[in-house]
Design brief:
With 336 residues, the chain is of the alpha/beta class. It has eight helices and 13 strands. A five-stranded mixed β-sheet has the order 3-2-1-4-8. A five-stranded mixed β-sheet has the order 11-10-9-12-13, sandwiched between helices. Strands 5-7-6 form a three-stranded antiparallel β-sheet.
Length: 336
């Protein structure tokens, strides 16, 4: 499943850039390095493109903490930056004809001219369709060229080789699948990514499509000390009362999302949710689990990777949930 060379998963966020390096060895994934560069200001604009010079500067700093021979990169786009559609195409179309048909279908619904988009499409599993069917469903993804090219340009200028562009949700689901397999977890778990600006809920029911919802609720809602109160710690730990209130508010948001999920997937109930993102210091997992009525656990994305003794001690000292997307991307890249 896994092939050489080392793979870097790079998560470009509004507030930092994170990288996880995995080295495929003898059918296993070895954690070689992980690092984060905090950004002085966001490098991502409202159209999801990045400030290439600012990102380039951050990636060059990041590279200093990564193995010299790690060049191949898997990166992600926010789900909100990607158009996702399922369309029906004739079964007898050539590749060129299929691409033209996809472009025509997108031109009728895309807010951007098709010429400004990069496309990716593939047929969905036809196991449930009759061989005599004249059409087959295709999954189509599209994103603005500038959204992708601005990221790729910065990485290439830093001497890296971007090989995979994935949806952020899919990166998280790759990590969830990898973790479930190695934890021998056979029941369905979702994944909740708690960020500063928003929280995302993702789950992949068996045999179904990925389910994803985004909530405009994040850790930036917690009041922090002002600049006049002294130097702010890099890791902000709120008062217990603040964390309890935030946990209760998060539970309210998630309950609504779970109700929507259960109404459309009644045969794929959740056993629990893995928590990730930068919110491990502001969410009480036991309280959240009680409020939701299911298990809630912080995920350590590094737990099931092999690594050196020294790095293993470092990686096990914390949940490191903020590296979930980067770790999922590295897993995805290694399976390429």
């Amino acid at each position: 499943m896994f092939r050489n060379p080392p793979i870097i998963g790079i998560d470009i966020g509004h507030h930092s850039v994170k990288a996880v390096v995995l080295n495929p060895k003898k059918g296993q994934l070895e954690l070689s390095a992980f690092a984060e560069i905090v950004l002085p200001s966001s490098v991502i604009n409202d159209q999801h493109s990045v400030n290439t010079p600012a990102l380039l500067s951050a990636v060059r700093k990041l590279k200093k903490s990564l193995p010299f021979n790690a060049k191949t990169v898997a990166l992600a786009l926010p789900d909100s930056a990607v158009i996702s559609k399922v369309i029906q195409l004739d079964t007898n179309l050539s590749d060129e004809e299929a691409e033209f048909a996809v472009s025509q279908a997108l031109s009728a619904t895309s807010p951007f001219p098709v010429e400004e988009l990069r496309l990716d499409f593939f047929p969905l599993s036809s196991d449930n369709f009759m061989e005599t069917a004249t059409t087959v469903p295709f999954q189509v993804f599209a994103a603005r060229r500038e959204t992708i090219d601005s990221r790729v340009k910065a990485l290439k200028k830093a001497g890296l080789n971007p090989s995979v562009v994935e949806l952020q949700t899919h990166a998280l689901l790759w990590l969830a699948e990898y973790t479930a397999e190695r934890a021998q977890e056979h029941e369905l778990w979702g994944l909740v990514d708690i960020g500063k600006r928003c929280t995302e809920f993702s789950v992949k029911p068996s045999g179904g499509a990925a389910y994803h919802r985004e909530m405009a609720f994040g850790t930036e809602l917690i009041s922090r000390p002002s600049a006049g109160d002294g130097v702010i710690q890099k890791i902000f730990t709120p008062e217990p009362e603040q964390a309890e209130l935030f946990t209760k508010q998060l539970a309210d948001h998630l309950k609504r999302q779970f109700q929507l999920y259960n109404s459309t997937h009644p045969r794929s109930p959740l056993k629990g949710v893995w928590l990730c993102g930068g919110g491990q210091y502001v969410v009480f997992e036991e309280l959240l689990g009680r409020l939701l009525g299911l298990e809630a656990r912080w995920i350590n994305p590094f737990r099931y990777f092999t690594c050196s003794k020294k790095l293993g001690q470092i990686a096990s000292d914390s949940y490191y949930g903020q590296y979930a997307v980067a770790a999922g991307l590295a897993i995805r890249g290694a399976a390429q």
